[in-house]
């Protein structure tokens, strides 16, 4: 039976390879919108499909989203030998700087393969593409996860990923809006502070996000922009949320980066509440411990009508194509090898 209640504006994690009875009861009662998985949850194809089905049965929604981080390179959770390994986005950026059309073709093939691979497992998004700028003089928390430091090239390649993911029924999520391109610390451990002027940000960091403002989902960064809000990181700042909507013109679904990162202060409930109070559609709390998820759920609230409408618009754009994962992955790899990428 489908749930009659509106889901909470919350993604949560869980600790193991299957849902315990207490976890199933929590999901049934709390009804968080989605589940976010990590390597600890991923063993083999049959196990992953069973876990996704368990979650959807518990919340009573056949379309309940199950997402992971699957960008390629050092951020790909499906990497235990059961699936092909995918290149980092930075490799495709390097190829595109050498030969733009070859870079786009290889990236499209790789994205179609990776998207179909996730779709076959019941996973609805790899939370990609990363369209932050990767500058040489900043912290390497992004580095090869991004296409490079040229806003136009980043936007063009980001577009390839967005369209290819939609084609195979996977939800692309551009990240990390408004951009980690100037950070000097890792937000997993500390809060980056950016003092750049608005004009400089408009001319660089913001440009890929503005170019892809029609993307259905975006993930919000944990960093302080002093020219906008000197006290609060973007992911809990109503000022930054308004800037994303108005200055950047983005009206898709806004989900925070994981609120357990050290860039954010306060208890789990305080962080969830602050993100939703700031105006974001969905809070991400993927730590995985049941007690922490319960605390986060108590601080969450049902999805708003505006959020539900944004989610629905994104769902309407999903295609249903499936491709031969191994064949397209191999074709992408051949293009890279032909161009000197071993």
Structural description of this entry:
By secondary structure, the chain is α/β, with parallel strands linked by helices. The chain has a single domain (8-338), classed as Glycoside hydrolase, family 3, N-terminal domain (TIM Barrel). 41% of the residues lie in helices and 11% in strands. It contains twelve helices and eleven strands. The protein has helices at residues 21-30, 45-59, 89-98, 100-121, 151-167, 198-203, 207-211, 238-246, 268-277, 290-299, 305-316, 325-338; strands spanning 8-12, 32-36, 66-67, 70-72, 75-76, 173-177, 193-194, 217-220, 224-225, 253-256, 283-285. Strands 3-2-1-11 form a four-stranded parallel sheet. Strands 6-8-10 form a three-stranded parallel sheet. Strands 4-5 form a two-stranded antiparallel ribbon. A hairpin with a 2-residue loop joins β4 and β5 (75-76). α4 packs parallel to α5, α4 (100-121) packs antiparallel against α12 (325-338) and α9 runs parallel beside α10. It is globular and about 55 Å long.
Provide the descriptors you would attach to this structure in a database record.
single chain, 342 residues, alpha/beta, TIM Barrel, 3-stranded parallel β-sheet, 12 helices, 41% helix
């Amino acid at each position: 039976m489908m749930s009659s209640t509106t889901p909470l504006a919350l993604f949560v994690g869980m600790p193991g390879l299957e849902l315990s009875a207490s976890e199933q009861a929590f999901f049934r009662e709390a009804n968080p919108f989605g589940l976010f998985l990590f390597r600890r949850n991923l063993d083999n194809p049959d196990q992953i499909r069973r876990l996704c089905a368990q979650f959807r049965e518990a919340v009573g929604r056949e379309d309940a989203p199950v997402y992971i981080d699957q960008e390629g390179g050092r951020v790909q959770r499906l990497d235990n030998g059961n699936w092909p390994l995918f290149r980092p986005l930075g490799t495709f950026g390097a190829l595109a700087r050498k030969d733009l059309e070859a870079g786009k073709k290889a990236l499209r093939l790789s994205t179609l393969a990776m998207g179909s691979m996730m779709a076959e497992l019941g996973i609805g998004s790899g939370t990609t593409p990363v369209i932050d700028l990767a500058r040489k003089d900043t912290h390497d928390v992004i580095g090869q996860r991004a296409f490079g430091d040229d806003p136009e090239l980043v936007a063009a390649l980001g577009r390839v990923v967005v369209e290819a993911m939609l084609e195979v029924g996977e939800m692309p999520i551009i990240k990390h809006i408004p951009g980690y391109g100037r950070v000097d610390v890792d937000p997993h451990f500390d809060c980056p502070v950016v003092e750049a002027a608005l004009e400089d940000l408009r001319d660089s960091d913001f440009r890929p996000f503005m170019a892809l403002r029609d993307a259905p989902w975006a993930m919000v960064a944990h960093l302080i922009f002093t020219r906008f809000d000197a006290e609060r990181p973007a992911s809990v700042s109503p000022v930054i949320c308004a800037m994303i909507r108005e200055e950047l013109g983005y009206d898709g679904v806004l989900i925070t980066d994981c609120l357990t990162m050290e860039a954010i202060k306060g208890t789990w409930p305080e962080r969830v509440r602050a993100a939703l109070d700031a105006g974001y559609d969905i809070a991400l709390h993927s730590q995985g411990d049941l007690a922490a998820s319960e605390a986060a759920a108590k601080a969450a609230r049902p999805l708003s009508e505006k959020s539900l409408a944004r989610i629905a618009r994104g769902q309407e754009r999903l295609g249903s194509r499936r491709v031969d994962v191994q064949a397209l992955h191999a074709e992408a790899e051949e293009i890279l090898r032909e161009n000197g990428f071993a």
